[in-house]
Amino acid sequence: MLGRMNPLGGMTPFDGDHPLDQPVATMAARVRDKDDALTAVELVQASLMRMQMLDPGLGAFLCTTDELALAQAEAVDAKVAAGEDPGPLAGVPLAVKDNLAVPGAPLTCGSKILAGYTPPTWATSVERAVSAGACIVGKTNLDEFAMGSSTENSAFAPSRNPHDLDRVPGGSSGGSAAAVAAGMVPLALGSDTGGSIRQPASLCGIVGLKPTYGRVSRNGLVAFASSLDQVGPMARSADDARLLLAAIEGVDSHDATTQTFASVAADPSASLAGLRYGVVQEFALADVPGGEDAEAAVAGVRAVLDEAGATGVELSLPLVDASIPIYYIVAPAEASSNLARFDGVRYGHRTDGAQDLESLYAKTRDEGFGEEVKRRILIGTFALSAGYADAYYKKAMAARTRLREQFDAAFERCDLIVSATTPTAAFKIGEKSGDPLAMYLCDILTVAANLAGIPAISIPCGRDRAGLPLGLQLWGPPGSEGRLLDAAEQMASATGLGYEAPRASGGDA
Amino acid sequence: MSAPQVLIGVEVHLQLKTKTKCFSPSRYHYGAEPNTLIDPVVLGLPGALPVLNREAVRLAIRTGLAFGCEIAELTKWDRKNYFYPDLPKGYQISQFDRPLCTGGGIEIDDDDGNPKTIRLIRAHLEEDTGKSTHDEGGTKSRVDLNRAGAPLLEIVSEPDIASAGEAERYLNALREIVSYLGTSDGNMEEGNLRCEPNVNLVFENGDRTAIVEVKNINSVRNVGKAIEYEILRQTRIYHDDGRTMANTPRSTRGWDDTKSATVHQRFKESADDYRYFPEPDLPPLSIARSWVEAERAELPELPRLRRARYAEALGLSPYDAEVLTGDPILAAWFEQALAGPSGPRDAKAVANWVQGELMRHLNEEKVELSQLALTPAGLGELVDLTTSGIINAGTAKALFRDVVRSGESPAALVEARGLAQVSERGPVEAAVRAAMEANVQAVEDFRGGNPKARGRIFGAAMKGLQGKGDPALVNEVLTELL
């Protein structure tokens, strides 16, 4: 099927003229315009049709929610007809990572342990996107409980990178990234605990933003590591991402960690001239095998920035070198506790073979969780255990505080930090799945933002020698998403680099 | 050989009387259908997050202040991790290293009646678990999550308690304080106060028995019984087997009500590892000093102080003071009745009325003080009518039976029905003479040396006065005429 159609090879719906391929602001404006013939239902149908054609080869979606999407689209169109404003995302098809709750749709987290579970309530972020007019077309694949960097840890099947079907789309929000990159949806929601929005965005050549911790509600996001998790937008451009972020952000009475931050609205006076961008010594990829292409891409952007009147500031944040060890203690520690509720008592999978309470727990969890999840539960349980907590968890938390202070100090000297998002472009399916440590190192350039609670965005930054997308990452102080998005837009126009529809390559084409 | 010293510390779990749960919007009350007071947070559904109920913190601060605790300026939440079916999230939100309340104490009487303070180590806020019930056959267990997430204040005492009696008095004092504060029902039968004493002994030679924690105790009296049992049991095993703290691990025993004995549950050879860590879903909480001071200003007079005041300032007997202060609502009612229009009434007289007729009425009719038509001011009026001699005791009691239901003014009734005591010589003498004429035999008997006969004449005279005669005057006239 895929071989015959090879839909990524330039079919008509992907020529860029289809309304679905236009900027989100444009398509929403057309839907909101009573005099424009374009309807939300048409956009949703086009999205569902592309999913039907493309997804068998990509595996980006775990389920489609046609009925829900069409009902939402009809409601949007009805509002337009009635002269009401359906919101800034009117009729825009939205893919939702399957660790966010959508009532009526199964919530799997890419795990067998949630078999049969359907949530009763909305995740706040999804509900807010829907209130802004977005239409939910499906739930996207992910590494089990968002633990991974390739979607290969999904209990169901790995997703594929639309730019090369033999390669991973990154992870854990790999399904969302592939869905956007393949043009199936203009927008997707992901979640980012250590890079899970930015790394797949980079590998799939799209934009992905991890907001400041506390900007977007985590209510209804199945927790991986509660002090690191953030929901964020994935899109083809920074402006598209901005529209989704503006819809989902804000204080939520259901999440005590949410706060109000500066508006994400575009600042028309923002300019690259006079911008102080930091370059962190510890993010250099010179010594990382295969890191030359990413390093060169960053250097290329720097040259453009300098030409536009920006100033580079050399920085050193020594604790960045410890960010992977810190992360792989803090995140599993919290995960070991967050995942304790999956015990077979109230919902999800329950073993048939329990003799007593102990075996109910042990067998249910053994059968329900995959290898990587078990590994992290073990690491986290160990890191919190009496006699070890001081050496691991407490030390990691202390180092985390210091790392945050180093970022605070850095942002006194620069407006934002520029780095690569990943050391290399997308790797082959199976290439790292047997080597957890190699997989963990995919996050080496992203986890520090989660540990520090600061926002960071990955934007397309050209391609490597093999023609695979590379990403550039911009980091800012807490609440600086508006500025990061402004800079991302200006850099995209200055460099001419941005989202490109996938070309036919790889797979069985 | 002298009796060993007894060391008892008590851990109390006190359910705070909030409308909704500690971290979610479900209501909680005792006795609802199982699993009806629940929500996604209580159920531990994926993605559900706790949000602090500040009222739980307020009630905890209020309770802590009444115990004389220090209230933390910065407090935080921690996860206590363990698996059990009635713990839906697999962790309990509690407080580990920054409890809301520290220090303080509760004053009791020791076994000799002398005041003694039981010091508190800490009191922290946490969420309750659900409730498991297990079938007799052991094949099925049921979980009711109604209670899960209800706010608990865990109050941990120093091992200052030296006997079963002290432990019971400690619990009663604690219960009385929280009922004065209105922060908890403090009812052990309904499980909103749960108590786990830990007991060990110190012998004259310095040997100590291993600490035993006793669980599953459902009444204050049984706390005392369990402690008495443990003192005997630990004394015996020490003398029989030489078992001490040095060679025996700490253990947990359960109270078996039918056997009136504690039963071994498990040893705590290695400390339980709950893998505490800061709850990332809840920010630390700063508690403004102005909040604490506002709560302090709202504290009522506490029972022990009030009792002392009743005895010293009001001159009531210790027994009267105890009864009147035992229930804060009764005490408040009493104090309102005490307050007369021109200064306080005679405390003893008011106390007698409250403890006598009023309590009898409440008990016989099984009604609450709040349901009475009679107001404290109404009772005060009745007291005034008797102490000033306007009505006699018999009339007063009859009047009480009317006004307690009707709520009418006793003074107005006395006026309307002409119940005022007859204290003038003329009508009294006439009534006495008439009574003597009607009871000639009794007069003869009395004069013949039978003093009892006098009562019949007195009664007849009072009857002639419709019971309203001033008894003293009737007696006086009777003595003269006889």
Tell me the helix content of chain A. Answer: 25-40%
In CATH, the homologous superfamily of the domain at 2-272 and 486-495 in chain A goes by the name: Amidase signature (AS) domain
Number of strands of chain B: 19
Quick check: average pLDDT of chain A? 94
Q: Note the main sheet of chain B.
A: 10 strands, mixed
Q: Tally the structural domains of chain B.
A: 3
Indicate the overall shape of chain B: elongated
The DSSP helix count of chain A reads 16
Give the name of the CATH architecture of the domain at 2-272 and 486-495 in chain A: Alpha-Beta Complex
CATH fold node name of the domain at 2-272 and 486-495 in chain A: Amidase signature (AS) enzymes
Tally of strands of chain A: 11
State the largest interface. Answer: A-B, 44 and 30 residues
Strand content of chain A: 5-15%
CATH class of the domain at 2-272 and 486-495 in chain A: Alpha Beta
Number of helices of chain B: 16
Reading the helices and strands of chain A in chain order gives: HHHEHEHEHEHEEHEHEHHHHEHHEEH
Q: Return residue spans of chain B where pLDDT drops below 50 for at least 5 consecutive residues.
A: none
Class of secondary structure makeup of chain B = alpha+beta
- Extract low-pLDDT stretches of chain A: 1-13, 505-509
In short, what is this structure?
The complex is a heterodimer of chains A (509) and B (482). Chain A has 509 residues and is an alpha/beta fold.
Descriptive overview:
The complex is a heterodimer of chains A (509) and B (482). Chain A has 509 residues and is α/β, with parallel strands linked by helices. Chain A has a domain of 281 residues: Amidase signature (AS) domain (Amidase signature (AS) enzymes, Alpha-Beta Complex). Helix content of chain A is 37%, strand content 12%. Chain A is built from 16 helices and 11 strands. Chain A has an 11-stranded mixed β-sheet with strand order 1-3-2-4-6-5-10-11-9-7-8, sandwiched between helices. In chain A, strand 7, helix 9 and strand 8 form a beta-alpha-beta unit. In chain A, helix 10 packs across helix 12. The longest helix of chain A is centred in the last third of the chain and has 24 residues. The radius of gyration of chain A is 21 Å and the shape is globular. The N and C termini of chain A lie close together (10 Å). By secondary structure, chain B is an alpha+beta fold. Chain B has 3 domains: 286 residues, no CATH class; 117 residues, no CATH class; 57 residues, Orthogonal Bundle (Arc Repressor Mutant, subunit A), CATH 1.10.10. Chain B contains 16 helices and 19 strands. In chain B, strands 1, 2, 6, 7, 8, 11, 12, 13, 14 and 15 form a 10-stranded mixed β-sheet that branches. Chain B has a 3-stranded antiparallel β-sheet with strand order 5-4-16, with no helix packed on it. A two-stranded antiparallel ribbon of chain B has the order 3-17. In chain B, strand 7 and strand 8 form a beta hairpin. The longest helix of chain B has 22 residues. The termini of chain B are far apart. The model of chain B has no long low-confidence stretch (mean pLDDT 91). The chains are: A alpha/beta (509), B alpha+beta (482). Chains A and B meet through helix 10 of A and loops of B.
